[in-house]
Amino acid sequence: MAAVCQVTGAVPGFGHTISHSHRRTKRRFDPNVQKKTYFVPSLGRNIKLNVSAKGIKVIDARGIESVVKDILAKGVKL
Q1: How far is Cα 69 from Cα 67, in angstroms, rounded to an integer?
Q2: Looking at domain 13-74, which of 2.30.170.40, 3.40.50.12160, 3.40.50.1480, 2.40.30.10 is its CATH number?
């Protein structure tokens, strides 16, 4: 599963892990992406979304109808 949120567009960040001796090694900061199933009344079916924890909060605040409308406006097939 790709570490990309379909609602917020959050993608992995990159940086370094710094040890006690201050050696740097590359690392990747992945967003907290979960696969969630939502029922969308306007579509009359369930949809599966890869959403971050922040994306879940956005859906709770704005509602699934509003979020799905924005996703479909971007041209993403659900």
Answers
A1: 5
A2: 2.30.170.40
